[in-house]
Structures are given as C-alpha cells and as structure tokens.
Amino acid sequence: MTFAQTDEQRMLAETLDSALVGGMDWSAAVEDTGVAALGSAEAAGGLGTDIRDAAVVAAAMGRANAMLPWAEFWVANRTQGIDDPALVEDATTLLHCAETIGLCRVMLNDAAHFAKERRQFGVAIATFQALRHRMVDMAMLLEQADAITDAAIRDFDGTSAAARARAVSGARVMCADAARVVGEGAVQVHGAMGLTADLRVGGYFRRARELMQQDSGTAWHLRRYAA
Question: Which of 69, 88, 101, 123 makes the best surface tag, with the fewest CB within 10 Å?
C-alpha cells in the first residue's frame, strides 16, 4: 500500500480500503473508522501525530474517491497551538499529494483492465504498441510522483523549513504532472465512456484536478522549488 511501511500502517490501509467507498459522509469515513484520533498527541488521548499515518489515510481516501477534507482536518488537529502558516500549508499540500496518488492508482489500474478487455480488430487494445507505450509513461510518472512524495513525508519532521518547503514543492509539481498525464490517459483509454457517470474514472480525474488547483497552484510550487 502506498506510504504504508510498518505492519500497523499496512493493516490500516487494508482496513480503510475495505471500509471506504465514494460518497461516504464524514462520520462513516473518519469517526466510525477511528482515524479521527490521528493528528492528536497520544498524551491527549489521540493516536499520535506522525504524518505518514495521515498519508496512509489520505491515499486510501483517494483510492475510494471519498472527497472529504481529511488533509485539512488532520493538519488542524496536529497544529493546534502552533503559529506556523508555512508548516500548515506544507502539511496540507503533502497530504493532498498522497490523496492524488491514491486517485491515480485507481485510474491507472482501471485503464489497464479496460485495455485488456476492450477489443478492436479482433484483439485487445492492450496489444497496440502506441497504447502500451502510453500506459508505461503513465505508470512511470506515477511511480516518480509516489517516490518523491514518500521522500518528502519521510523527511517532513527532520529537516529545516527551507528543505521541507523544497521537498513538498517538488512532490506537488510531480503529483500535478501525474494527475494530468494519468487522468487524461485513463479517460482517453476508455474512449467516450471515460467522462460518463457509468465509469468511475471521470469522477476520479475531476477530484484529482480539483486537488491540484489548490495549495497555491503548481506554478507557485515550481517557482518555490527553483528558488
């Protein structure tokens, strides 16, 4: 599972994948599953403030396309009493990246399965060389976005503010590219059905685009990374 490195995190990811579905309300998705206690210190009765745990949840939210403000909720819990707007923005951005990667995983998997089932000229379209190359490009970009986001999560609490900002902006730019390339590719692989309500890929792509329009925008993060 994306970002899950310990046995507990992998179990959390698997539990959420079984429990979450698109269109869930806040109570069912967050309170009933117990993840509402994340972001609060253990001394205060919470489950701790590790951003990797929060990213595991964010990625699961993406895979379910739950469309809930998990990032904002967790960051508000974690930063109570901390007057650091940059920290708040970076943490929120990083969790949006994790959710985007969850969304992209499903879009890529759906596109791959559809390409194996859809037949033209008597063969599955997955055998077409141009489509195979495109799917590889989509997968490689997603893995790059996943890796750089994972690195930013790993170092989030152990680096300077400047290093943290650069890592988060790098992840944000790569996730925006992945959302565009994977989303557009998945929709096009499905043809005209890709944007209909009959298939989930269109809704996942809309959510990914919505997330990537937040957090000051891609151009701003590209400038911050370069600076």
Answer: 123
Q: Is 119 exposed, middle or buried (0-12, 13-18, 19+ CB in 10 A)?
A: exposed
> Cβ–Cβ contacts within 10 Å for residue 76, how many?
14
Closest Cα to residue 52, out of 8, 100, 107? 8
State how many domains the chain has. Answer: 1
Positions of the chain with pLDDT under 70: 118-131, 192-197
pTM of the model: 0.93
18 CB contacts (<8 Å, ≥6 apart)? Answer: none
**What integer pLDDT is reported at residue 189 of this predicted model?**
87
Q: Residue 96 sits in a domain of what CATH number?
A: 1.20.140.10
CA atoms of 62 and 55, how far apart (whole Å): 10
Residue numbers of the domain that contains 94: 7-226
